[in-house]
Design a protein that fits this description.
By secondary structure, this protein is α/β, with parallel strands linked by helices. The chain folds into four domains: about 130 residues, Response regulator (Rossmann fold), CATH 3.40.50; about 170 residues, P-loop containing nucleotide triphosphate hydrolases (Rossmann fold, 3-Layer(aba) Sandwich), CATH 3.40.50.300; about 80 residues, Orthogonal Bundle (Helicase, Ruva Protein, domain 3), CATH 1.10.8.60; about 40 residues, Arc Repressor Mutant, subunit A, CATH 1.10.10. It is about 45% helix and about 15% strand. It has a five-stranded parallel β-sheet, with helices on both faces. A five-stranded parallel β-sheet has the order 7-8-11-6-12. α17 packs across α18.
């Protein structure tokens, strides 16, 4: 995809140098020497990335950024500032700017920074379009994913939601079974009625019966008044029973009667109560195996499994991880009043390589922790609370140092690998190396004049 980049700089030699460097990368480049001309081009052109100096006469860089962002919320923005005015660039990033460059411009650093900003923009737009496509096609905005396996799930949900069929959702823990159940209810004729969820593994056998069927006054010690159970409360609606494989045999019998006869009796009761409730059940157990081992009733198993939906593990739908990450960042930004702007492609690559035994729940917890603890506007590889050994190969922190290298060679390799790790961010690299930014700039110039960052 060809991107259009607008460069705004009143320093004409600098403007020409940047245009020349980026044209060679296959981009369409527009230029302006002041904010007024830049605004005219923004009004009449589709701009993908704005690269602007902060200090300009008449309309300054920050004012230009503010106007441009209002016109195009998807616009990627990089500001340029003098070395002595980094504070201004940091302030700009707090207002939603993607990154900054310091003068004099390092052409290699410019190219990499622009490439990363455009990749991030393309990914965000693609993810949003995919979500809109799924919502229009299936009406399930709660279900995030565009992988083949998730298409199969949403296709099945779209067919069974309008019916009253009992549904069994199977899959590993943390794969989003309750979200599927909620999508079924929300898109069914029962959507205006009650939806309740109960985790069968969280309560004792006695409490499970009371929760499901309710009880009469005096049914047991402490039962001072009649109480309705979940089935009565859900009349006309949907009841979601999670971890249904944990029910004891007595409760299984009573549940089977409800599915077959649409009636039940409260604990301590003497009369049958008719109900119309759709049951959606879920389990991470192999119920077929439980049946063969005598741990689960065969007749109940087949009554539950009128339609089975198998939720894929996150390992089976890795292509959905960027979409999920974006959704979780937005969710936790709102929850914790943070302003994380996104995540770098390098950080996404790390997330794509993890095993996720806890599936979506594990990824969600990881992103929540990252959003809370991150000190940067954009999540990078070092912000992820992921042990090195869990990343591909387990050796990404290793530095190639060996006998025979000079101290200059060692220093060069340490600086190069540190810059690779922080995606070329020299401020971060200087902090990790515990040296001043000017010292790092000087060392890069002498040791790594052709550095690709």
């Amino acid at each position: 995809m060809e991107h259009t980049i607008l460069i705004v700089d009143d320093d004409i030699p600098s403007l020409k140098a940047m245009k020349k460097a980026l044209v060679s990368e296959g981009h369409r480049i527009l230029g302006a020497t002041n904010g007024k001309d830049a605004l005219e081009q923004i009004r009449h052109e589709t701009i993908h990335l704005l690269l602007t100096d902060l200090r300009m006469p008449e309309i300054g860089g920050m004012k230009l950024v503010e106007i441009a962002r209002k016109r195009n919320p998807d616009l990627s923005i990089v500001v340029i500032t003098g070395f002595g005015s980094i504070e201004s660039a940091v302030e700009a990033m707090k207002r939603g700017v993607d990154d900054y460059l310091t003068k004099p411009i390092n052409i290699t650093e410019l190219r990499i920074l622009v490439s990363n900003a455009l990749k991030k923009q393309d990914l965000e737009i693609e993810n949003r379009e995919l979500r809109q496509e799924l919502t229009v096609k299936y009406g399930f905005p709660e279900i995030i994913g565009h992988s083949v396996k998730m298409h199969q799930v949403t296709e099945l949900v779209s067919r069974i939601a309008p019916t009253s069929a009992t549904v069994l959702i199977t899959g590993e823990s943390g794969t989003g079974k309750e979200l599927i159940a909620r999508a079924i209810h929300k898109n069914s004729p029962r959507r205006d009625k009650t939806l309740l969820a109960l985790n069968c593994s969280a309560l004792s056998n006695t409490l499970i019966e009371s929760e499901l069927f309710g009880y009469e006054r005096g049914a047991f010690t402490g039962a001072q008044e009649m109480r309705k159970g979940k089935f009565e409360i859900c009349e006309g609606g949907t009841l979601f029973l999670d971890e249904i494989g944990e029910l004891d045999s007595s409760t299984q019998v009573k549940l089977l009667r409800i599915l077959e006869e649409k009636e039940f009796m409260r604990v301590g009761g003497t009369r049958m109560i008719k109900v119309d409730v759709r049951l959606v059940a879920a389990t991470n157990r192999d119920l077929e195996k439980a049946v063969s081992e005598g741990e689960f009733r065969k007749d109940l198993y087949y009554r539950l499994k009128v339609v089975e939906i198998k939720t894929p593990s996150l390992r089976e739908r890795r292509e959905d991880i960027p979409l999920l990450v974006e959704a979780f960042i937005k969710e936790f930004n709102k929850k914790y009043n943070r302003k994380i702007q996104g995540i770098s492609p390098e950080a996404v690559n790390i997330l794509l390589e993890l095993d996720y035994p806890g599936n979506i729940r594990e990824l969600k917890n990881l992103i929540e922790s990252t959003v809370i603890l991150s000190r940067e506007e954009r999540i990078g590889p070092l912000d992820l609370p992921v042990p090195t050994k869990e990343r591909r190969g387990g050796n990404e922190e290793d530095i190639n140092i060996h006998i025979g290298m000079t101290m200059e060679d060692v220093e060069r390799e340490v600086i190069r690998q540190t810059l690779v790790k922080v995606e070329g961010n020299r401020t971060k690299a200087a902090a990790i190396l515990k040296i001043g930014l000017r010292t790092l700039q000087r060392k890069i110039k002498s040791l790594l004049p052709d550095l690709l960052f």
